[in-house]
Specification:
By secondary structure, the chain is mostly helical. The chain has two helices and no strands. It has helices spanning 3-44, 47-92. It is flat. It starts with a helix and ends with a helix.
Length: 93
């Protein structure tokens, strides 16, 4: 490839890399700013509001735990059923 063709390609790749890096860095700054605002908002809550928020969070976590436990139970049942079929096939032979 000649240098006359290589230069525009390198320039385009460089500009794209700089743009991507800038976007990534900007997103990180925005995330940090939003996190700080969220933390400060939580700190400003009164005790009653904080307790209510924690209870809501607990309800969500308990629901999530129950969902995971149901999935594990279903998976265990499928495994037991599959193992039962395998044992049955071995006995028939």
């Amino acid at each position: 490839m000649s240098t006359s063709r290589l230069r525009p390609i390198l320039l385009s790749v460089s500009v794209a890399a700089i743009a991507a890096t800038g976007a990534w860095y900007g997103a990180g700054l925005k995330w940090k700013q939003e996190y700080k605002q969220e933390v400060s908002a939580i700190r400003e809550l009164g005790p009653a509001e904080r307790i209510k928020q924690l209870q809501t969070m607990r309800k969500q976590l308990v629901a999530q735990r129950d969902d995971v436990q149901n999935k594990i139970l279903t998976l265990d049942q499928k495994i037991a059923k599959a193992q039962g079929k395998r044992a049955q096939i071995k006995l028939e032979r």
